[in-house]
Write a structure and sequence with these properties.
Layout (H helix, E strand, L loop, with lengths): L13 H9 L7 H11 L4 E4 L6 H13 L16 E4 L3 H14 L7 E4 L5 H10 L3 E4 L1 H9 L10 E4 L2 H6 L3 H9 L8 E6 L4 H10 L4 E4 L5 H5 E7 L2 H15 L4 E4 L3 H13 L4 E4 L5 H12 L5 E4 L1 H4 L9 E4 L6 H8 L9 E7 L4 H11 L5 E3 L5 H6 L9 H10 L27 H11 L15 H4 L14 H4 L25
Parallel strand pairs: 1-6, 1-7, 2-4, 2-5, 3-4, 5-6, 8-13, 8-14, 9-11, 9-12, 10-11, 12-13
Helix pairs in contact: 2-3, 3-4, 6-8
The protein binds adenosine monophosphate.
The site of adenosine monophosphate (AMP) has 16 residues, from helix 3.
Amino acid sequence: MSSAPSFAELGLAPELLRAVADAGYTQPTPIQAQAIPVILAGRDVMGGAQTGTGKTAGFALPILHKLLPQANASPSPARHPVRALILAPTRELAIQVEESVKTYGKHTQLRSTCVFGGVDIKQQLPIVRGGVEILVATPGRLLDHIEQKSVTLGQVEIFVLDEADRMLDMGFIPDIKRIMALLPATAKRQNLLFSATFSTEIKKLADSLLNQPQLIEVARRNTAAETVAQSAYKVPQEQKRALVEHIVRTRGLRQVLCFVRTKHGASRLARQLEKDGLETSAIHGDKTQAARLEALKAFKEARLEVLVATDVAARGLDIDDLPLVINYELPHVPEDYIHRIGRTGRAGASGEAISLVDPVEMKYLTEIEKLLRKPIPISSVEGMNLTASRERGERAPSRGRADAGEARRGRGERAPHGEKTSRAPRSERAPSAPRPTREAEREAAYARNPDQPVPRKPAASPHPRADAGHRRGFGANRPVPALLMKRPPATPVPADVEPAPAAPAHPEKA
Ligand code: AMP
């Protein structure tokens, strides 16, 4: 049996090996072992891998290696053109990817930064104008920078499209095509595309982007569903909070990620759990970027017992060894369930996901099971007096039937004969809702995307030309480049996903 190569055997530079060792990685993950040599050899790659597989280091390490000869400490922006461009669908993923680039490149002089929408572009201008070799961006905001001439792409040598299937779902493909048209010719650059799924549309996109790519596939879309122990409790909405408290306390857990569907629900649940004595915070689109990052930091440092999150805010979250994801409310789009539970069981670690299902949510559970193509074992919490135990102020109530079931499932054991752990009979389930069309799901996903610009109110203006949609301010009299003129109008963002007003500092590498 051939053993996997070490990072050193993959041929990476010593300064990168040091950073990898600092990060505590001892062995490349399968995607890294396969992708790094291919990228170092200059081939285009079509990578089938989702987050959690270590794919970011799989492309970031060879990119850093290839750009090392051009690393320099010159203060001149001209000596730091964008040489690698990484596009990501959401700001959370973009931040995460750029943090990884910084982590792996910390012993080099290569510069990187990250630009995304929903925050004031002015804060990003000095950093990008100062010059960076590696730019991580969401598509819309990158086009804004190109329009402002703060970024040029004429010297891009490596182009990465991360989570291409989510880009497609979010309606970013037209923007990506505009960006691709501004890059040097395909033959002059290396292209890497990563996607968890390969629909016909993704393959079409790959054909237009990649030059004789090497296909590397390490994980299918449902891998997280296979490595994460999943279970569900049938529990009325009003008992869910007590059950969360019970699970967290009886198991003495920290870093439990709890998903709800709305921003309002996230704030409310976080407040209630705090009141119950659990160290809790919430992240959602109404929080400022600074508040979100602070909550995330506290969570990563295990200072929180529970982090309550909405789907959009949690996208791209990357926390090592997350023990448990709780679906406090089931998502209405079944694919979101896979993204949620993918926050645990990362990079080969085992994880657990528990869904709390009110009877009216049974239809969503059925949809999720259809997508997973397997049933999720469901237990009843009847017989557990959760509310009473909380009111008595007990910190660790004795394990009830539900907990026994959890522990058993964690050990991969079956329920004793006669105990109620099987799926609820069909007759008890709510009727299945008609599945939304792919088109409707995409529209909804696009509308949820926090990177979309908020539509401006048509405020009365003393300048009639401005109201007519003409450009104002800097560059107003210059012709709009043809490529940029074709951008479609922004889809209105529902109140639930307003972008955070403040931007995090992304200081340029010293
Ligand atoms: P990604 O799929 O890139 O989002 O990475 C998922 C997680 O795996 C991140 O927390 C990385 O820090 C971690 N990771 C990446 N490569 C390795 C490795 N070779 N060994 C251990 N952990 C890794």
